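User: Hi! I'm working on a homework problem where we have to compare a predicted structure to a textbook description. Could you give me the structure for the chain below?
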Amino acid sequence: MLNQLNDRCVRSKTSDDGCCQMTNAISSLSSLFHLQLHLPKYSDNSITDRTMKSMCTMLRSLITLSHLDLSFSENKDITDSGVIDVSHGLSQLTHLISFQMDLERCEGVSDVGVSHVMAAIQTLQYLSRLHISLQNCKKVTDVGGEKIGDFVRARISLNYVEVNVK
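Assistant: Happy to help. Predicted structure tokens:
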């Protein structure tokens, strides 16, 4: 039984279609408890909100997940809409202990997307580890930072927090 998956799309296969197919395949791993999925932009290939929507479906099927590490760095075609889709999947992960999300240089992400992610993980009672990277997300302002700060202040159960901005 596979219960941990570390996956990184390789340069030649990082495309929106390939990533959607991969997330659909991962959806069938219902007993997965650790997922590390890094989908950075390579050369001319970039994932879009379409991949993020398929990620929502994937997350909804992985109800035993306790550790989640998602990286979408430098994918400029990801917008708040895609991040909101992922947040809908996050709210279903009731056993999540550790959450890491890298949106570095995702220029279409703003305070709206950050707010939805923070609201989604607010309901996760076992979450004790949080790492969010928003470096060079030019549309994320102090408002997004305040949403993260509000979440951290309200969660005394957190024992590790790392936030990277600007």
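For your comparison, note the following. Residues 2 and 153 are 36 Å apart (CA to CA). DSSP finds five helices and six strands in the chain. Good luck with the assignment!
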